[in-house]
Specification:
The structure holds two protein chains of two kinds. Chain A is of the alpha+beta class. Helix content of chain A is about 60%, strand content about 15%. Chain B is about 40% helix and about 20% strand. The chains are: A alpha+beta, B alpha/beta.
């Protein structure tokens, strides 16, 4: 049942009883008015009787006064007689009005009046001292008779009215009883009707309530099932998931999150996140900002900084990668925060192994050049040795020794350059990119010769930035080798190193640009250049060179951009490596192993 | 030096010092030596001089040893060529085309032995006294 129907039923159960009761009240009022009409007739009879009695009394007063006058002859005795004259006339008028509806009583009243008039004639005779009246003793008898007639007529009138009153009282009583019965019956009927109606409405409400309850039960079961489904889904996610309420207290943790944090869901429930999710910087060991606070501050999805380590309750440490996102209500208000993270300890190790592998691959790519660089002077030294064995001329011997020395120092230089690929200071140091590029080119010299590549150097001034020289050498080696390979036999490469001024979003630094005369890069390749294991060189490449180089440059706070060079004489690709003067790299971010 | 009468060898290498030392070694053995620092000047000498054998470095700017060898074979295929290299993995087609290969670092004795096999001992050749 919906709310509207419920309200309709509610209105019905309110208005219908009120209506019925109003009808009942109307009926009762009607009955009462009927009964009071009957009672008014009784009052009417009472009035008639009272007026009749008062008339009789007034007539008696007149008679008494007249008799007193007769006996004493005193005029003062006539006062009652005279005083009653007007009231008697008035009584007659009132009574005439009262009994006008009843012919019987009208007749009685007319008789009374006639007899009173006769008596009044007699009384007038007395007052006028009519000798016929005064002196005749029989007149006394006559007067008595007149008065008795009057009285009997009054009595007859009273009797009739009394009889009428009795009849009326009986009728009123009967009506009263009937009314009571009617009221009782109608009340009973209304009561029963109301009971039936209310019962039916209640049954209706109850039925719909049951239906609603069932529907709600079904729905809650459905909601429960959906909840279970979501829960299972969350539980099944391979990443750790923690959901917090708006205040940052833990509301949910999946199995992976429980395993990584070392807290069970029951233990963690309601606790502040930073108590459960304890993260520090892997290197500095400083506590990292709680992602929940960060989300609330920034109102958006946030990722964790690199090198974040989660310390479990049992003290075990995991390198993690995570993101936190706000859970918003419909209005956009933050209702909670969901945190997703994963253990990347193994991945980090693999990454480190890949970086190491790439370092070896660079060495491998250089091996031929290095062999050449070392074998050439060695060959010369062996030759000199051969010459010295048979030479006696001291001047020539000295000359040969000088030659040998020269070749040996070249070997030393090569070996030093090679070592510097791997030797790394603990902290970033000022690096002259010009010198660095020259060193790399020295190692690549043979390769350059072999490929017949012409290298145009557009760097004369020293250009110093902070950084890790071995890592930067690795970047340069990769970039130069790629350019040489792209340029191909007889190709050209232009290397330009120049300082760049600070610009928007970029502090001052140095730009190393390497342009080749090769075919350029295709669009579909561009997006993948910095992905690990992406190579255009088939079996000759590891696909890690640019990935590692990019990592190194990013770490230094720089950037690598690769695109096709459209202007100028060289129509191949360009690689622009930007490095800031003040590096962002520090000892903790060094990827190259420290070598003695 | 008396060795001026030995076979004429053309030595091509971009390593000036190494080339100079190698020349001294060969001359001590009695060979006459012409030197060039790159492929194209080497080919000029090869065309203009009665070269009897060539000692050729593989890695050189401009033309590499392989290209130079091909050009020489086109001109005078009878002239033996010894390819000298510090690079261990020389292209197979070049190795089969030349007569001898010597790795830099194998030492002067090995080099001289191969030169002798290529041209014969210096005193027995051509314009012996």
């Amino acid at each position: 049942m919906n709310l509207r129907e419920f309200n309709r039923i509610l209105r019905q159960t309110l208005f219908l009883p009120v209506l019925l009761l109003l009808v009942l009240a109307g009926f009762i009022i009607w009955q009462i008015s009927r009964s009071s009409a009957e009672l008014r007739w009784i009052d009417h009879s009472d009035d008639v009787m009272e007026q009749t009695i008062r008339l009789e009394k007034l007539v008696l007063d007149q008679e008494t006064g007249l008799r007193g006058y007769q006996l004493t002859g005193d005029n003062s005795m006539l006062a009652p007689y005279k005083a009653a004259t007007v009231p008697i006339a008035k009584r007659f008028t009132i009574l005439r009005d009262l009994v006008s509806d009843n012919p019987t009583q009208m007749g009685h009243l007319a008789n009374v009046r006639d007899r009173y008039q006769i008596w009044l004639g007699y009384a007038q005779g007395v007052l006028n001292k009519d000798p016929a009246v005064v002196s005749d003793p029989r007149m006394n008898e006559h007067e008595k008779e007149l008065m008795d007639n009057l009285r009997s007529e009054v009595n007859a009138m009273l009797m009739t009215e009394g009889h009428l009153r009795k009849q009326r009282a009986e009728t009123a009583l009967y009506i009263e009883r009937r009314e009571l019965a009617a009221v009782l019956v109608s009340s009973l009927v209304v009561g029963v009707l109301l009971a039936i109606f209310t019962h039916s409405r209640l049954r209706r409400v109850s039925a719909t309530y049951d239906a609603t309850l069932e529907e709600l039960t079904n729905r809650s079961e459905e909601i429960y099932e959906r909840r279970q489904w979501f829960q299972t889904t969350l539980e099944s996610i391979g990443d750790a998931v923690i959901a917090c309420d708006g205040d940052g207290n833990v509301e949910f943790m999946n199995a992976v999150a429980q395993e990584l944090t070392g807290w069970t869901m029951q233990e963690a429930l309601g606790r502040p996140l930073n108590e459960v999710f304890h993260i520090v910087n892997e290197e500095t060991r400083q506590v990292v900002e709680n992602p929940v606070d960060k989300v609330r501050r920034l109102q958006t999805v946030v990722g964790l900084a690199n090198h974040t380590a989660l310390i479990s309750r049992k003290g075990k440490e995991y390198v993690i990668d995570d993101s936190a996102a706000p859970i918003r209500k419909e209005g956009g208000e933050i209702r909670g925060i969901v945190l997703v993270f994963r253990d990347v300890t193994e991945a980090r190790r693999s990454e480190a192994a890949l970086i190491a592998a790439e370092k070896l691959a660079v060495a491998g790519r250089l091996a031929a050049s290095i062999a050449h660089e070392i074998h050439n002077p060695l060959d010369s030294v062996a030759n000199v040795h051969f010459l010295l064995e048979n030479e006696t001329d001291p001047v020539k011997r000295k000359e040969y020794l000088r030659m040998a020395q020269q070749e040996l120092s070249r070997t030393m230089q090569i070996s030093r350059t090679l070592l510097s690929l791997y030797r790394e200071p603990k902290a970033p140091i000022p690096v002259d990119l010009k010198e660095l590029a020259e060193g790399v080119l020295l190692l690549l010299d043979r390769r350059v010769v072999q490929q017949g590549v012409t290298i145009e150097r557009q760097f004369t001034e020293p250009c110093v930035v902070e950084g890790f020289p071995a890592e930067l050498r690795q970047v340069f080696t990769n970039v130069f080798l790629n350019a040489m390979e792209a340029a191909g036999k007889g190709g050209r490469i232009r290397i330009r190193i120049q300082p760049v001024a600070a610009a928007e979003l970029r502090p001052a630094g140095a730009m190393v640009e390497v342009v080749d005369s090769g075919p350029g890069i295709s669009e579909q390749v561009t997006g993948n250049l910095f992905q690990p294991f992406f190579t255009t060189k088939g079996e000759n490449g590891t696909g890690l060179g640019l990935w590692v180089s990019n990592g190194i440059v990013l770490k230094h706070g720089g950037s690598i951009r690769i695109a096709n060079n459209d202007d100028g004489d060289l129509k191949g690709a360009y690689v622009r490596v930007y490095l800031p003067t003040r590096t962002m790299a520090n000892s903790s971010t060094r990827t190259t192993a420290h070598v003695g | 030096m008396e060795a001026v009468t030995g076979p004429l060898i053309l030595c091509i290498d971009d390593e000036a010092l190494g080339l100079q030392i190698r020349k001294a070694v060969l001359e001590r053995e009695g060979y006459r030596v012409l030197t060039a620092l790159d492929g194209s000047s080497g080919l000029n000498l090869f065309t203009g001089e009665p070269v009897e054998g060539v000692i050729l470095d593989y890695f050189m700017p401009g033309m590499d040893g392989g290209q130079v060898a091909i050009a020489m074979r086109r001109q005078r295929p009878e002239v033996p060529i010894l390819l000298l290299s510090a690079y261990v993995n020389l292209p197979q087609e070049i190795v089969t085309m030349v007569d001898f290969t010597v790795l830099k670092g194998e030492g002067p004795k090995e080099l001289l032995a191969k030169v002798r096999r290529m041209l014969g001992p210096p005193e027995e050749s051509g314009m012996a006294p």
